[in-house]
Design a protein that fits this description.
2 domains; 5-stranded antiparallel beta sheet; 11 helices; globular
């Protein structure tokens, strides 16, 4: 059994780092901080049978949560926090007052939201079947791919700033997926296998993003690297129904809603596996909640 304390974003990085302890882990998802503790695992049978014990434990958790929240602030005063104690079928919400300065504002979740928005916008255009929307559709797909890759980098940067800030400056400019591996190594968790999923697809999303952002006109008869990436996923990525089959593969045929959806799911699946390795189940992304529609098959 695991109890979590959910704390809305308050405090700067140095203050948040104070919450790390042997009793619980602290991590970020969206605009909330989660404090995870397993110290009450042995109480499950008692709590299931005894409502009075549950109430007493809830009071104890409340005291621990308040003490943890106090550590957000140099003064030790509780300031403008809302938090939730949850576990075994009950939830208790709390609100504290006053506003702390220098709050750390996460951005990674907004990248993912943007990727979903652009992908759905592409779907709407492809569903219309109007080929006059081809260029606009390509723009939406580019937006989704770029923000999907941006989510990957922003997410790991936020976790380093929160947990391993002292060494972050030395690895900040490194490759995105290498930073995930370093974080797992520092946390003494199993690393990703680079030759398997979801690492491979996450790597391809980043490569595709780089080829889009640092685009070079292909004056040869050989396919561009972006084209190779998309064709390498031919069993997953469907071509744009708005593009003529005789048109250039990249960007017209290859940059489709299906490509945007693949990029989104690839990065979300990768970070979910990352959270699995860290045993941070509440941080995982509910991919289905984004409600990305099925792909539209291109006309023959």
């Amino acid at each position: 059994m695991s109890f979590q304390w959910v704390v809305q974003l308050n405090g700067n990085v140095e203050q948040i780092q104070l919450l790390q302890s042997s009793e619980f882990q602290v991590f970020l998802q969206g605009d909330r901080w989660y404090l995870k503790s397993d110290q009450f695992n042995d109480c499950e049978d008692v709590l299931a049978a005894d409502p009075i014990a549950r109430e007493l434990l809830q009071e104890s958790l409340n005291e621990i949560a308040i003490d943890a929240i106090c550590k957000f602030y140099d003064s030790g005063e509780i300031k403008n926090c809302s938090y939730t104690i949850s576990g075994h079928g009950y939830t208790s919400d709390h609100q504290c007052s006053s506003t702390p300065p220098n709050a750390l504002i996460p951005l990674s979740s907004h990248h993912l939201d943007a990727a979903s928005y652009f992908a759905k916008s592409s779907y709407d255009l492809e569903r219309s079947g109007d080929q006059n929307n081809l260029n606009k559709n390509i723009s939406y797909v580019i937006g989704s791919i770029v923000t999907s890759a941006s989510y990957l980098e922003a997410k790991i940067n936020e976790h380093f700033e929160m947990t391993y800030k002292d060494i972050f400056s030395s690895i900040e400019s490194g490759k995105i997926l290498d930073k995930y591996q370093i974080y797992l190594r520092l946390s003494q968790k199993q690393l990703f296998n680079k030759g398997t999923e979801p690492f491979q697809s996450a790597c391809k999303v980043i490569d595709l993003r780089n080829n889009i952002v640092h685009y070079k006109i292909n004056n040869t008869d050989k396919p561009s690297k972006a084209e190779k990436i998309i064709k390498g996923k031919s069993g997953i990525i469907k071509l744009s129904p708005l593009a003529d089959r005789g048109s250039e593969f990249f960007p017209y045929q290859g940059l489709s809603y299906s490509c945007a959806k693949w990029a989104f799911i690839s990065v979300a699946s990768f970070t979910n596996k990352f959270f699995d390795k860290l045993e941070l189940e509440p941080a995982k992304i509910d991919i289905e909640s984004y409600e990305l529609p099925p792909e539209i098959s291109p006309a023959n």
